[in-house]
C-alpha cells in the first residue's frame, strides 16, 4: 500500500488511470461524482494523486457560471489541494514519483521574460487564465469519461479529482515533513491574502489596516498584518459570525455595515459610506441623510484620519471604492461637511476580490493625485515554484496559523455539501479527504 491507502505509485505509471472525480455538467447543477479516465502525463507534465482539496469562492463562482464567457462543460473544477507525484512526463527534472506537491493556478515556467523579471509573478505561458480549459502541449484534455467524452480543465489545476494532470510549471515540490492537510491552503487563499500583506503592500509594524470581506483571503490578510505588527486591524463584513474568527486571527476592531442603519442594497457587502472613516469611507449620500457625527468622529479617531493599507476581498466595486477612500484622509470630516469632493492623504489599496461585473473601476483619475494608490495582487505576488517552498518552511516553523483556516472536514463524496456550507457562509475552508 502507498500513501493514504492507495496502490503503490509505480503500479499505475505509464497507464491510463480510472478514478473518481466531481464533474460540473452545467452552471449551478450539483457536481456529479463520476468514474473518469486520466491520461498519462505528456512532455513537461505531471500526474499527481490528490490527497486533500478545498473549495474557495473562485470555485463557487465558476460552478455558478457567473461569467458566461468562461463556461465550458463538462469540467473538473478545484484549485486548492495537496498531493503526491504519481508520474512525470518527459523533461521533468525538478520532481519525481512520491514527492509531496502543491498545485498552483498561477504557474512559473522559469524561462520566459516574465518569470525572469523581479517585477511580476506572472508567467507568459502559465499565468492564471480562467478561459483556458485544455493542456498547452496539444490543446487537448487529459480527462475523459469512460465513453471517451473529453472533460475540460480548470485554472491549470482541476483538483476535484482523485488524480489530475498539470503542467510542471504549475506544480510545486514541498518539504516532505510539512503537514499535508495544512499545505492545501497554500494553493490559493492563504498565499493570496498573506502574500498581499507581505509582498504587495509590505505592511509595516505599527501601521493601520482595513480588510473588507473576512473570508479565507481576507483573514489571511489579517494574519499577514498581525504577523507584521500592525497596530490596528479593522475587519469589515456583513456576517457577525466572522467577528469571533476574525478576532482569533488578529483583528482589533470589527464593523458590520448593518449596525449603522444604512440599507444593505446601498452598501453591498462591506460598505459603510463615510469619507472620514478609518474603516470604510462614507459617501456624501450618507452625510445628507444625517448619520450620527459621534459615530463618525469615533471611527476617524481610531486611525487619525484613515488607514495606511486597505484590502478589498469582496469582489464588489462599491466595496472597492470604499476601501480606496478608507485610506488616510487629512481632513475628510471638514471637507465632507462642506460638500467638497477633493481630499488629500496617503495609503495603499490592494484589490484581491474577483470582479465578474462589466462595470469599470469606480474612481476618478484626479483622486489618484491626492496621494492614495491602488494596485491588484495575484497569488499574493508570490513566484510559486521559487518562493512557495520557503513560505512552506515558514509555516512549518509556526509563523502562520494555518489550522485556524480549516473550519470543516468532509469526505470527497460530500463535495456538494461543502459547496453549500460556503454558500451559507458557514465555512471558511472545508477540507475534503480523497
TrEMBL record:
Pfam families: ADH_N. Residues 43-175 form the Alcohol dehydrogenase-like N-terminal domain. Signal peptide: none annotated. It comes from the Eukaryota. Keywords: Metal-binding, NAD, Oxidoreductase, Zinc. GO terms for molecular function: metal ion binding; oxidoreductase activity. Its cofactor is Zn(2+). Belongs to the zinc-containing alcohol dehydrogenase family. Class-III subfamily. Homodimer. This is Alcohol dehydrogenase-like N-terminal domain-containing protein. It comes from Ilex paraguariensis (yerba mate).
